Amino acid sequence: MNYETINTERQGKVMLFKLNRPEQLNALNARLIDELGDGLKGAESDENISAIIITGNDKAFAAGADIKEMKDKTFASAYMENFISRWEAITLCRKPIIAAVAGYALGGGCELAMMCDFILAAKSAKFGQPEIKLGIIPGAGGTQRLSRFVGKSKAMEMILTGRMMDSDEAERCGLVSRVIRDEDLISEAIKTAEEIANLSLPSLFLAKESVNYAYNSSLSQGIEYERKLFHSTFSLNDQKEGMKAFIEKRKPNFKNQ
Ligand code: DAK
Q: What is the pLDDT of residue 17?
């Protein structure tokens, strides 16, 4: 895959997308979002890929949507071009996606990280929704996802003041799953992605679908939905293989069936 604003790297069953607009702190312009969406669609349909990583560079995961590109938009142009739809490829991807964040993850950058399945943060990571300082509000899920991650009080404070939080605060409040030394971020993300990629892909799809359902349902609906998905796992050959391997004290050899 040859793109201008992202680099791709394949490691076994893991596909890594590295945002690549370093002079603009990886500001997310339309081209980058389109290329990332296209890359994700390719990874989704590639049966040799089972897990995905999105990362940036040492200084920035992404410092937000590209302000220079956005500044002259009008209500009509934003509304008519359906500005948000480009971002949907990220949330539609069924394969597990890890955000590996070092440096700034601001505005759309923080929203992009939150669209992934979980966030591994380098010690240097800084998260924020500073849109209010530009006279706008978050527009790619920030008010909704940040509140669900960190609760109303902290989300309100972050969104109403635009202040950033560091990686330790982000871990304390549940925005990120782990904080890792900067120099180990990518190797740790790849190791984690490889562990996931060696599991049964249909089970991973079901697990991801079930967790995501928790954000769109009441507890009782979610429990009911999970139970149905759980029952369906017994139709997989991978379930037979996983349990047989446990009893035979060997590693399972999942075939994604
Ligand atoms: N857009 C464009 N360029 C950016 C940028 C951005 N978001 N962030 C940084 N840059 C550029 C700077 O302009 C500068 O370029 P030159 O001026 O040298 O050409 C270069 O990157 C380096 O930045 P600085 O010189 O500012 O670097 P510092 O280390 O001094 O400061 C900083 C780093 C991250 C604190 C600072 O750059 C900063 O405050 N950046 C802006 C952060 C921000 O406000 N982010 C939120 C943007 S609004 C939607 C989807 C998404 C969104 C909305 C709707 N839909 C689909 C509906 C999202 C909106 C946003 O994200």
A: 98
